[in-house]
Design a protein that fits this description.
Largest sheet: 6 strands, parallel
Helix content: 40-55%
Strand content: 15-25%
Radius of gyration: 17 Å
Structural class: alpha/beta
Strand order of the largest sheet: 1-2-3-4-5-6
Number of helices: 8
Distance between the termini: 7 Å
Number of strands: 6
Shape: globular
């Protein structure tokens, strides 16, 4: 069994929620009320969230990180992909969009992009998740490129809550 302490949940936040909400205050408070450490939560944002260069956006992300919550850039490579975002904002993780993973075995361009994103991210101290991994061959290639994590139907399809809890032995 995995146990509740080993579970890490990722939550997608929209650019609007980051810009106009109080997520930087509510999430750490909510986790404290539950008695859970921030390390069990990852906030996933899109590249478009980072287009808003107001200082308060960076400050809100920094507040989340100070609470132990990690910040991941979701669907990387499909949006604006300004490399400066990776150093300007406190990003802990990058999720390579499944559109690159899907065709990387047959498309040398996608394969090169995936390998380059992983290498660049690691040089910046950023962990990498490959989205949409569906075959053992994709997983093997990603392991060859030292991808940190894979997610997709190869491992599990979406499950109802009871089946998920059973899978974890909870």
């Amino acid at each position: 069994a995995y146990g509740a302490e080993s579970i890490r949940i990722a939550v997608n936040l929209s650019p609007r929620q980051i810009a106009n909400g109080d997520v930087h205050l509510s999430w750490p408070t909510y986790l404290a009320e539950l008695g859970l450490p921030g390390q069990q939560l990852c906030i996933e944002i899109t590249e478009s969230s980072l287009l808003d260069t107001r200082p308060e956006i960076a400050a809100r992300l920094a507040t989340l990180r100070a609470a132990g919550i990690s910040i991941a850039l979701d669907d990387f490579g499909t949006g604006y992909s300004a490399m400066s975002y990776l150093t300007k904002f406190a990003i802990d993780g990058l999720k390579i969009d499944q559109s690159f993973i899907r065709d990387m075995l047959n498309n040398p361009g996608d394969r090169a992009i995936v390998e380059a994103i992983i290498a660049m991210s690691h040089k910046l101290g950023i962990k990498v998740v490959a989205e949409g991994v569906e075959t053992p061959e994709q997983q093997a290639l990603l392991q060859q490129y030292d991808c940190d994590f894979c997610q997709g139907f190869l491992f599990a399809e979406p499950l109802p809550e009871a089946e998920f809890a059973a899978l974890l032995g909870l």
